[in-house]
Amino acid sequence: MANPKRRHSTSRQNKRRTHWKLSAVGSILCPQCKMPKLSHRVCPSCGFYNNVSVVKIKTKKTEERKGQ
Questions:
Q1: How many other β-carbons are positioned within 10 Å of the β-carbon of residue 38?
Q2: What is the β-pairing status of strands 36-38 and 27-29?
Q3: Running DSSP on this structure, what letter comes out for residue 68?
């Protein structure tokens, strides 16, 4: 493979990297609990996805009862 004969300057390097940007995370509001969540994923606060309860979320009260 060919190798560069001279070093590229930092300004030239930075011009090439101007398009290396992070995009914002696509978060939406949950229709059940109105908390922000990632789109196309189960809501971590209520456990609903597509208006169906998918995951049962543990609360602090149920965890305390198990410890007694």
A1: 12
A2: antiparallel
A3: -
Helix then strand count (H, E) for the chain reads 2, 4
Cα dist from 39 to 25, 26, 32, 51, 56, whole Å: 9, 6, 14, 13, 19
pLDDT at res. 18? 92
Q: Which amino acid is at 55?
A: V
* Distance, CA of 38 to CA of 61 (rounded, Å): 26
Please compute Rg for the chain using Cα positions.
Answer: 24
pTM of the model: 0.54
- Give the pLDDT confidence of 28-57 residue by residue, as tens digits: 999 999 999 999 999 999 999 998 888 888
Strands (DSSP E) contained in 1-68 are 27-29, 36-38, 48-49, 52-53
Structure tokens at 11: 């300004």
